[in-house]
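Retro notes - structure team

What went well: the batch runner handled both jobs without manual restarts.
What didn't: labels got mixed up in the shared folder, which is why I'm recording both outputs here explicitly, each with its sequence directly above its tokens.

Job 1
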Amino acid sequence: MDRAHTEGEANTSQARAEWAARETDAAARDLLDRDAGAFLHQALSSPCVATIAKAEGIWIEDMAGRRYMDFHGNSVHHIGYGHPRLVQAIKDQLDALPFSPRRFANDVATDLAEKLGQITPGDLSKVLFTTGGSDANEVALKIARAATGRFKTISFWDSYHGAGFGAAAVGGEATFRSHIAGPLIPGTEHVAPFHPTQCPYGHDTLEKSAEACAGMMEYVLGREGDVAAVIAEPMRAVPIVPPPGFWKAVRAACDRQGALLIFDEIPTGLGKTGRMLSFEHDEVAPDIVTFGKALGGGILPIAATIARSDLDVAGDFAIGHYTHEKNPVTARAALTTIQIIEDEGLVDRSARLGAAAMDRLRETVGASPIVSDIRGRGLMFGVEIGSERDARIPDPDRAERIYYACLAEGLSFKISAGSVLTLSPPLTILEEDLDRALTIVETAIRAAA
């Protein structure tokens, strides 16, 4: 089970230690000890404090039989765990064609490439598959360099684009940067994000902060003069929603300065925010977009980079020479996942359930002295926890206590940015299960206040 903690958080805390101490099952304790001995230790994953033995639908179950609704899932479980149609499609593909060397064409990989071009707005139709989102973002950066003849980028501090050297260089989280001795790749300029609680622009509203941020983006683009691309998450998965007009302003600035716009849709795409792609809310189109995480249906790893057709300019070079580049089994998983999302109407369902959930939270806990904000899109929403003295001051300790109180009641989620209870259930969740989860959160917030 994922420990569901904030970016940059240390590996120890009193609440986490108390939770780990509750594990009395001998087999589970043995597995945790073996895990700690076998894996390299790093923030956000290992050592673990709980086990997992089963994952089905919205549920995960540990070795002692305790079940939890998973409202995190590393953003892979849009269609739930083990969707029967997806499992059968993978089994059938294994029987038909289990592997394809990348220099051979196979129909399922080509079908997936064409399908991604169909669901992506604008003239984004040229595709390359990778095994993970970090690689997909690095392919996007290579395309931008090849197409523009430039090497610089602009991105946000506090953003996340993967753990590779290139992805970590354009990312802005200290967790993925500060341990690396020496420089990352050059030319990676950063600006402060647009959210008023996370940037130094000095504005107390989202709209004013975003306006200042867009102005800073234009300023840096102009001052550098040779930026290949702006790379960003169209909606931060923490979550932070851009105000109307923000991305239009950035898009216009990129066009004026000859820079490409790359959107990282790895956690937010495929219906999570109530649109197939989250940037559709903002009525803009990037030059390149990346997918990952949920693309494999919560079973297999696959990611994709999709570019405008006129950016297919690197044919003489290897920009993403991956062994599993055209793997028919991972391609089948991705293609079937998209078909399930479409056939079951999960994009509209995400919009409807998410709006109702946020309305309910605003009504039930929005006036709590420790709740500073409730925000999100679709089934990716969050409750920001602050101090009783001033809710605008983040209170990570209180947020963590709320998290473990919810975990004890059978609900797992992620704490983002130190103090945001980030709730991201599968798009297939039953309404009664969503209601039950919200009741658990509301009860824990009231107790913490």
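Job 2
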Amino acid sequence: MTGSGAMKDGSGKVERVLLRSRVVVPVTRKGTLISKGAVLIDNGEIVYVGEQDGAAGRWSKDDLVIDEPYGVVLPGFIDTHVHLAQALIRGFVPDSVTLIPWLRDWVWRLQGVYGHEDGKASAELCVLEMLKTGTTTFLEAGLHSRYGIDGIAESVLSSGIRAVLSKKVMDMKGYATVEDALPEGMVEDGEECIRQFLDARRKWAGAGGGRLDFWMGLRTPGAVSDEMFERVSQLAEETGSGVTMHLAEVKEDIRYFASRGFTPATFLRRCGLLGRKRVYVHCVWLSEGDMEAFAASGTSVAHCPSSNAKLGSGVAPVVRMLEKGVNVSLGCDGGPSNDSYDMVREMKMAALFQKALHGPQSFTAWDALEMATVNGARALGLENLIGSLEVGKRGDVVVIRTKVPSLTPYTDPVSLIVFAATGRDVAHVLVDGQPVVTDGKVLTLDEERVLRKAEERFEVVKGKFLIGRT
């Protein structure tokens, strides 16, 4: 990295950044690579993408210059399903339990003793990992009021990452056909959920120069009444908010809808909850008709292969969804179900599972990369701003350094990144044209403090949880 005298504006922000690398992968079209490429960002906006020779005369000695002769420059990764509050409980939950008892007896009971300090510590730990591994944008699954929504939003904002946070919305206690699945510590009043969502959206949507947005995160069917589903649909239309929800993750979900005469898609259509900025997570057990309804309405699916595999939930029919025109993005999910918030590793998992089921030709490294970038942007309604490296889009950029044993010799850069790299190979990350990770070090968070705080708060949460089980 050169250009330490990079020009900054009055707020201390870097005004112009030039990245030069072995190759730029703009993710504008499958197979497009720019050897000896360059990306120039001016006040957060990409103003040039092309060969290095073409950037000559467009930059000055006052600009920040990031030279990576062994680097691959890519759009920042977009994680469309993240549980911020679950980073704190990674490794503590049994890894041989199916979804509903796993949630009911462990995850929800652990989260049900959180206070604001615990929620913030977990969120900062999660964001630290995401930034270090190249995630520049994420969609939060749904925040409980006990986590301290404002404190989390403040931390996310100051970290420099781009985010869509959401308020969990519920008015019942079940999960599918299982009644009273939610422990008291996780139960919330429906009217209070709506009030908190509206307050948070007024306060945080558009903050950070547009880096933050605020949606509604519906709890699963069985914890949400039909009336609340319809109300969320109406509020989403009125406010412009998106909606996200776990859906068809396990067969119990399908049995729940069938017992009421619906499939997932027919139920959502009845409630007015299909369409753009509607992101449904997992969707392992969607029918052909469900996929067609999603494709026709522009509804998105967030695929979480590691989580589905660990919990034995199944493998989502991603190849079939893509064939039908469904927009499928990628999500890491949470600490206990994935154990990682690394989108590079998640791309590999997505590709391998589909190849195993449908043959090696069915799903390519490019398919995985698109899910982690352009498809994620489309899911969030941000495809005009992020997801690919194009003039006029925001400067959300990741640089992966290939001069390491696992990425040598240098061959096909996309195949190497999807199948051989991990997030630990990320060298630099920029969000909105601002460096947030340099040479693997996060500039916006005190890593030592975040790790220390997470250790401290986990001990507090564990103690409360264990007392509750005696």
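One thing worth noting from job 2: The longest strand covers residues 64-75.
We'll revisit the folder naming next retro.
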